[in-house]
Design a protein that fits this description.
- The chain is α+β, with helices and mostly antiparallel strands.
- The chain folds into 3 domains: about 140 residues, Beta-Lactamase (2-Layer Sandwich), CATH 3.30.450; about 100 residues, Helix Hairpins (Orthogonal Bundle), CATH 1.10.287; about 140 residues, Heat Shock Protein 90.
- It is built from 8 helices and 11 strands.
- It has a 5-stranded mixed β-sheet with strand order 6-8-9-11-10, with helices on one face.
- Strand 2 and strand 3 form a beta hairpin.
- About 15% of the residues are buried.
- One of its GO terms (molecular function) is phosphorelay sensor kinase activity.
């Protein structure tokens, strides 16, 4: 059974339930004890009075009852001693008899086939009994209220270390390498063991993140040299006028791929270092300048494919952004549109808080729209030499920079990517 309540509330509920069980059992025990004592004591008293009456020799002695609150009846009795109808069905022993608003204790004895009944008014006893039961009920309710208060105080005392640990764990500074360990702040109990386990896990996580950043940074740095050699070699080959058109096309393709790889390496290097960047240290750039540069770069490939490139400058957002990462996001979305559009147009529109890239390509089914942002996942119309990392990289950059990217369908076919750089 899974409980949805908080831990402190569960403690209070358990405390109240336990107190209710104990106090309820005690109260029921008192009530039952009163009834048992009532029956035994009054049975003994009434039985003795009835035996005393039976030992009297004349009816005149019965008329002179020593107890004014008692009534005496017997089978065949006369002069007020006759057995009433409501008492004829009583068996031998103790009984409680109710007559309207009056209540009596009664004791019945059968001698030689004749039934003798002695009643005693118990109204005063009932009043005292009701007072006792009222006291028991008030005590029961007070015990529950006291259990609720004590349970709440106890829960606060017990849960306080857990709440404090939860707040420390949720604090974003706890992931920083300079954040102090949590274990010394707690006693050597279960909470202290939990804090120690969190310190150990967090240490492993920090180590893994550090290794990932170092690996990304080192690989990106080391790949720069061979990529520069490839780019220089392509430039020299393109300057050679003896190349036939087919060879020149292949060299130009290698040059473009090399440039894309250099941009990708620079993006990974920047992304690895982005966690350490201070927002105030970023340059003030205009989204329009980045868009102008990329439109100039992609106009020729797009138009050579027979597509129309619509560029709506609109309101050029200006702010402190990482230019490399911003250029990568916009460039990858333009490249994705170019890959998957064979007819129609590709449009880039600047907004007051970001930009929109729309195409009339094959589109992405709704069932695959979330999956395409995962690494190595490509659309249904796979083409080109891509590995399915473009949209994954876009998503990763947007998450690291606090941007948002949204994908929507375009009728009758196509995709619309909306990137918001500010909220």
């Amino acid at each position: 059974m899974e409980f949805k309540h908080s831990l402190s509330r569960r403690i209070v509920i358990a405390f109240v339930l336990m107190s209710t069980l104990v106090a309820g059992t005690f109260a029921l025990g008192i009530v039952e004890a009163v009834h048992v004592v009532e029956e035994r004591l009054i049975s003994r008293e009434l039985g003795g009075d009835l035996d005393r009456l039976l030992r009297m020799e004349t009816m005149d002695d019965w008329r002179q009852r020593p107890e004014p609150e008692q009534l005496f009846y017997f089978t065949g009795g006369q002069y007020g001693f006759g057995l009433p109808d409501d008492l004829k069905g009583l068996g031998p022993g103790f009984h409680e008899v109710f007559r309207g608003e009056l209540s009596y204790h009664g004791f019945v004895r059968v001698v030689d086939g004749r039934r003798y009944v002695l009643l005693q008014d118990q109204s005063e006893f009932e009043k005292r009994e009701r007072v006792l039961f009222a006291v028991v009920l008030v005590g029961f309710l007070l015990s529950i209220a006291l259990a609720l208060v004590l349970g709440w105080l106890l829960a606060r005392k017990v849960i306080e270390p857990v709440v404090r640990l939860s707040r420390q764990v949720r604090h974003r500074d706890q992931l920083l390498a300079l954040a102090p360990p949590l274990e010394p702040d707690y006693a050597e109990d279960e909470v202290g063991q939990l804090a120690a386990a969190f310190d150990t896990t967090l240490g492993l996580l920090r180590h893994a993140l550090t290794r990932e950043r170092l690996f990304t940074s080192d690989v990106s740095h080391e790949l720069r040299t061979p990529l520069m050699v490839l780019a220089s070699s392509c430039e020299l080959l393109l300057e050679n006028s003896t190349l036939d058109p087919r060879a020149r096309a292949q060299v130009e393709r290698i040059a473009r791929a090399t440039q894309e790889m250099r941009e990708l390496v620079q993006t990974f290097l920047t992304l690895a270092r982005a966690q350490q960047d201070d927002a105030d240290s970023l340059p003030e750039i205009s989204l329009g300048s980045i868009a102008d540069e990329l439109v100039e770069q992609w106009r020729e490939p797009i138009e050579s494919k027979g597509l129309q490139l619509d560029y709506q400058h609109g309101e050029a957002l200006q702010g402190k952004f990482n230019p490399t990462l911003l250029r990568t996001v916009m460039g990858n979305l333009l490249r994705n549109a170019w890959h998957y559009t064979d007819h129609g147009r590709i449009s880039l529109g600047l907004l007051s808080n970001g930009f929109v890239i729309e195409d009339t390509g094959v589109g992405i089914p709704e069932s695959q729209r979330e999956a395409v942002f995962q690494p190595f996942v490509r659309g249904g119309e796979q083409r080109g030499d891509g590995l399915g990392l473009g949209l994954s990289l876009v998503q990763r950059i947007c998450e690291s920079q606090g941007w948002t990217v949204q994908l929507a369908a375009v009728e009758p076919s196509g995709c619309r990517f909306r990137v918001e750089l500010v909220g």
